[in-house]
Amino acid sequence: MASVYENPLCKRYASRDMGFIFSDDNKFATWRGLWIALAESQRELGLGISDAQIDEMKRHATDINYDVAAVFERETRHDVMAHIKAYGAQCPQAAPIIHLGATSCYVGDNTDILLQRGALRLVKKLLVNVVAQLAGFAEAYKDLPCLAYTHFQAAQPTTVGKRATLWIQDLLFDLENVDFALSRLKLLGCKGTTGTGASFLALFDGDHEKVKQLEEKIAAKMGFDGVYPITGQTYSRKMDYFALSALSGIAQSAYKFSNDIRLLAHLKEIDEPFETGQVGSSAMAYKRNPMRSERIASLARYVMVDALNPALTASAQWLERTLDDSANRRISIPEAFLATDAILSLMCNIAGGMSVYPKIVEKHLVEELPFMATENILMHCVKKGGDRQKLHERIRVHALEAANRIKLHGGENDLLTRIVNDAEMNVTAEELGHIMDAGAFTGRAARQVEEFLTCVKNILNDNRGLLGLEVDISC
Known about the structure:
single chain; 475 residues; mainly alpha; two-stranded antiparallel ribbon; 20 helices; 4% strand
């Protein structure tokens, strides 16, 4: 609707898959699935619930009557009660037993866990595919020497592929955190109003084993191997913190990646994908702005800040629960996942379509390499019989003069010419040519890439069922 605000995370940035996970259709169908699991489990444990009631509930598991629920919510000011009544209107036989013994958190919190599990799994799939794309990039450019930077000042050379492994390493840390967050997820179960299970104990006439079995059965029906053994009315909000902390880690890694791409785009060494009809600027027709990397940075800042929300929520819980977390969680958790989905989709797109310009890479390296090679040149000349201290001073003077020529006059780096023309240096242009082989200055970079990618390929092989994701960047 153009006349009301629509969240751009849904409309513009995130994938349909992630949008569906947090959609009303999925949320309320999950509520109904939980009510069905509760009723089935209660029937299996001996409560007087009929097959006809269960069948009726299943027939209306996904056809949510939103209009009826809206009427009831205006009346009750309670979303769970509204949907219980709306479901009951569709299931008159089952209406008396829907939500039997449960509190609102039975559907609310259990659904939140289920949605987070689905969202984390999608995030993991995206992560694995980004890593795969970057691994291919690192392999392709493992031997291409490039100028490396510390403080964004020219430093000892590396290779384009080695630089990419820095991005991959961060993402593998993030993958570990996502797996950790997934491993910690369990259902709240059916703990009742203060987490004691009192209402269910009453339903089963004081039979503790049946109450425990009820939770086990519900967990199994919803695809979990257990529930949290201890809770208040809600599951510990630390779980939300763990999940969003993992997303914050991804945002940090993505932000670093996007900054690197933007710097390299400025240097004209690498470009992110740019479609034939894409416009870089409405004013400057020649521009090719790294807008996807910029968008990653923009969304990453949002996710990193958003991760503060569950930390504050977890710390502000009152005794067995308080409701001041509800509105915050409805916004902060889905939006963190939607933004992370958009970030990783953009990373996958960039990683799979980057353009590298080897001639520019070489040009920048050649401009600075003579300065970096001075120690090797000094050692070579000393081996030929030169005086180390005198030659060091000659090189220092030539280096300063060459630097001034570049900085003050915009000239080329003529350090090597100065050294060859200095009789005291006693070195030929051919000898300098051998010394100046760029590959000799990259250390173990290429070998490090090979060794690291062996580990990466093992991880990708372990997650091969997640590979092959196609992303669509619509704007």
